[in-house]
Write a structure and sequence with these properties.
This protein is α+β, with helices and mostly antiparallel strands and 129 residues long. It is built from five helices and four strands. 27% of the residues lie in helices and 19% in strands.
């Protein structure tokens, strides 16, 4: 087995079977590699994937996640990603989301898939559009 730690999701796609995405020292999404690329269930993962340059979007402005990673000595209360998250709502500023099991629309468990986001369903469905 091999554990690869990188900021480059493009590299991961070629060598990994499973991915755990971390933010501020915590796992925020886990998934088999192809499922994560096809339909991320956490806004941070979606932002990372949207930031990868694509040949079919040549000439368009590259997406960037707003803001900067937090100081690890002063992690924001609630979800650590909330100051940078386009989906953040009041609950995100007050509660830390657990790593929720990601399921299909009919409730079928997606093996190995988890998301530490209160709005993983909305993110998952938004990523498919
Ligand atoms: S819990 Fe809230 S702030 Fe955190 S990633 Fe999800 S929507 Fe964004």
């Amino acid at each position: 087995g091999l554990i690869l730690i990188t900021h480059d999701l493009g590299v991961v796609a070629d060598v990994a079977d499973k991915i755990a995405v971390m933010y501020a020292g915590r796992i925020v999404e886990t998934a088999p590699v192809h499922e994560l690329y096809a339909s991320p269930a956490h806004p941070y993962t979606k932002g990372l994937l949207d930031s990868i340059p694509r040949l079919d979007q040549k000439g368009q402005e590259l997406y960037a996640i707003k803001g900067l990673p937090p100081n690890l000595l002063r992690i924001p209360p609630g979800c650590a990603f909330n100051p940078r998250c386009p989906r953040a709502q009041d609950i995100c500023r007050g509660e830390v989301p657990e790593l929720f099991q990601v399921t299909e629309d009919d409730g079928t468990e997606q093996p190995g898939r988890g998301s530490a986001c209160f709005f993983w369903k909305e993110t998952l469905h938004g990523s498919r559009s």
